[in-house]
Design a protein that fits this description.
Layout: E1 4-32, E2 44-76, E3 82-92, E4 95-105, E5 115-117, E6 122-131, H1 133-137, H2 142-150
Parallel strand pairs: 1-5
Antiparallel strand pairs: 1-2, 2-3, 3-4, 4-6
Amino acid sequence: MNDVVTVRIADVTSATGQANTNTSRASSVAGSLDNVFGYKPGNVVEAQLKFGFDGKGTTTRKNALSATVTAVVREVFPNGNLFVEGSKEVIINNERQYITVTGVVRPEDIAPDNSVSSDLLADARLVYSGRGVLSDKQRPGLLGRVVDFVWPF
């Protein structure tokens, strides 16, 4: 335990999703008001209800992350596998970037230079986040978030 291993992160994800929805429903009712409470108007009452919805959506997302993080062995399992955990903070132009990695690695997947590729981690968790002027400007302001919450249309 507490040995270190370098995790080489080369993660590329890509996803595309599409959805189409088309629903419709119609119903009608007809009846007369003959002899209601002794009153005989002879009027016919009709009602129709129609409902329809068409929706289409497409989403596309692509991400790429390339980094190295030195992780610490936090636990050795009975089968010899290692639970590793590591984090890195990088500050560039007052922007703080954080990379955190956790996962389980087999000893045979560790290269002679004591590194392992992130795609060989089981139960891998890669977190990339940041704080600073640019990160703060990437989200709506307080008033915009309040308006969006109160009136989401």
